[in-house]
C-alpha cells in the first residue's frame, strides 16, 4: 500500500491540535508528518503517534526543502498565513486543505464537505477550502433535502460556542464565569462584551449591509457548495456562553410538497447525520451530546405551516471537530481512498 506524507500547518493552535487528535484516530496510511507553526512555536517538540516531532518554522525555505515530499498540507493558521503560504505549498506539488476563510469564495477553489460535494475535489488547483464551521453542519442536513425536494429559502439562526473564537474566546467564558460567580469584573480579551451570562449577536465584523461577515459566509457558502445561486438564504449568527459545539435553528422552504414522514425517510440514511428527535421523551440534539463527535445531530423536526412547503430543524455539531479539523481530515482521507493524490 502506498504511504503518504502530510504537513500540518498551525499545529500548535486549537484546531491544529485537533488535527493531530483526529489523525491519530483515523490512522491514515502516512509515512511522515511535518508539523509547522510560527517562529514563536518553532523548535517545540510534540509527541504525536508515539514519535517526537520538532515543530518547523513556516518559511519559504523550509517549505521548498520538502519539495516532492509532502502530498497534503492541512492548514489552520489564519487567513493571512494561508494567503501567504498555501500557494507556496501548492507550487511544490502539495494539495492544501485550508481551514481559513481566505479561499472559500475563490471560483478556482473548491469548497468541500465530503458528505455533500466530494466530486468538487477533482477540479482543485492545489488548494481546497474547508467551509465555515456553521455552514458545514448545515450542509450535512440540507444536501439530502435539497436533492429530494429542492430548496427555495433557508433562514439560519445560529447559537455558536466560544471555542469558535479560539483559545482567547474560550478563556473569556471560563474567566468571565469565575468573575461573575465571585461578583468581580473581568476584562474580556476576545469579545467586545462579556460572554458569561450573555449572548452576542455579533460574530466577525459588520458589513455595509448590516450583516456580519460570519452571516454572509453562511449565505454565500451555502450557494457555492450546493451549486445553486437561486436559493434565498439569510442568517443571524449569535455567540452564546457554551464552550463547544454550535447549535442552529434552520427554517427551510422547499420547492416541492413535504411531510414530516417524507423528510425523516430522506434523512434516516444521510451520511454524517443522526436523527435525535423524540420530544415525547425530551430527546433532542444538544451541544453537550455532539461534542467529541464528527456526526451532526438533527431534531425538533416539524412542519412549518406558515408557508406552502416548509420545515424547521434544530442542528448541533462539534465546531472544532466536524466544523474544522475532522472535515479537513475527511477530505484528505477521501483523496487517499480514491487515489486522487498524484
Provide a concise account of the structure shown.
This protein is of the alpha/beta class and 342 residues long. It is 31% helix and 24% strand.
Write out key terms for the chains shown:
342 residues, alpha/beta, Rossmann fold, Dihydrodipicolinate Reductase, domain 2, 2 domains, globular
Describe this structure in words.
This protein folds into 2 domains: 141 residues, NAD(P)-binding Rossmann-like Domain (Rossmann fold); 185 residues, Dihydrodipicolinate Reductase, domain 2, CATH 3.30.360.10. It contains 9 helices and 14 strands. Helix 4 packs across helix 9.
Question: What is the fold's blueprint, element by element?
Answer:
Elements: E1 4-9, H1 14-26, E2 30-37, E3 45-48, E4 51-54, E5 56-57, H2 60-64, E6 72-75, H3 79-91, E7 95-98, E8 127-129, H4 133-149, E9 151-160, H5 166-181, H6 213-226, E10 232-239, E11 246-254, H7 260-267, E12 273-275, H8 287-290, E13 296-303, E14 310-317, H9 321-337
Parallel strand pairs: 1-2, 1-6, 2-5, 6-7, 7-8, 9-10, 12-13
Antiparallel strand pairs: 3-4, 9-11, 11-14, 13-14
Helix pairs in contact: 1-9, 4-6, 4-9
Amino acid at each position: 500500500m502506498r504511504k503518504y506524507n502530510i504537513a500540518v500547518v498551525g499545529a500548535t493552535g486549537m484546531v491544529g491540535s485537533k488535527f493531530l487528535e483526529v489523525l491519530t484516530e483515523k490512522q491514515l496510511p502516512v509515512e511522515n508528518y511535518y508539523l509547522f507553526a510560527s517562529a514563536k512555536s518553532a523548535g517545540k517538540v510534540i509527541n504525536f503517534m508515539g514519535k517526537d516531532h520538532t515543530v518547523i518554522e513556516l518559511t519559504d525555505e523550509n517549505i521548498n526543502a520538502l519539495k516532492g515530499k509532502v502530498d497534503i498540507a492541512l492548514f489552520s493558521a489564519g487567513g493571512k498565513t494561508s494567503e501567504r503560504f498555501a500557494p507556496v505549498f501548492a507550487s511544490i506539488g502539495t494539495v492544501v486543505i485550508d481551514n481559513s476563510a481566505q479561499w472559500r469564495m475563490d471560483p478556482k477553489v473548491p469548497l468541500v464537505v465530503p458528505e455533500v460535494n466530494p466530486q468538487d475535489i477533482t477540479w482543485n488547483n492545489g488548494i481546497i477550502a474547508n467551509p465555515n464551521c456553521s455552514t458545514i453542519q448545515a450542509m450535512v442536513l440540507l444536501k439530502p433535502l435539497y436533492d429530494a425536494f429542492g430548496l427555495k429559502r433557508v433562514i439560519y439562526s445560529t447559537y455558536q460556542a466560544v471555542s469558535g473564537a479560539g483559545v482567547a474566546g474560550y478563556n473569556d467564558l471560563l474567566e468571565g464565569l469565575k468573575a461573575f460567580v465571585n461578583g468581580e469584573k473581568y476584562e474580556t480579551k476576545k469579545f467586545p462584551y462579556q460572554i458569561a451570562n450573555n449572548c452576542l449577536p455579533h460574530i466577525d465584523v459588520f458589513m455595509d449591509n448590516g450583516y456580519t461577515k460570519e452571516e454572509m459566509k453562511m449565505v454565500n457558502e451555502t450557494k457555492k457548495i450546493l451549486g445553486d445561486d437561486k436559493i434565498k438564504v439569510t442568517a443571524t449568527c449569535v455567540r452564546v456562553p457554551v464552550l463547544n459545539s454550535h447549535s442552529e435553528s434552520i427554517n427551510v422552504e422547499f420547492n416541492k410538497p413535504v411531510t414530516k414522514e417524507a423528510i425523516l425517510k430522506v434523512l434516516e440514511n444521510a451520511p454524517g447525520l443522526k436523527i435525535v428527535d423524540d420530544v415525547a421523551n425530551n430527546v433532542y440534539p444538544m451541544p453537550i451530546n455532539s461534542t467529541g463527535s464528527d456526526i451532526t445531530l438533527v431534531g425538533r423536526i416539524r412542519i412549518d405551516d406558515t408557508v406552502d412547503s416548509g420545515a424547521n430543524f434544530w442542528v448541533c455539531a462539534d465546531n472544532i471537530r466536524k466544523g474544522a479539523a475532522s472535515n479537513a481530515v475527511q477530505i484528505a482521507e477521501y483523496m487517499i481512498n480514491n487515489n486522487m493524490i498524484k
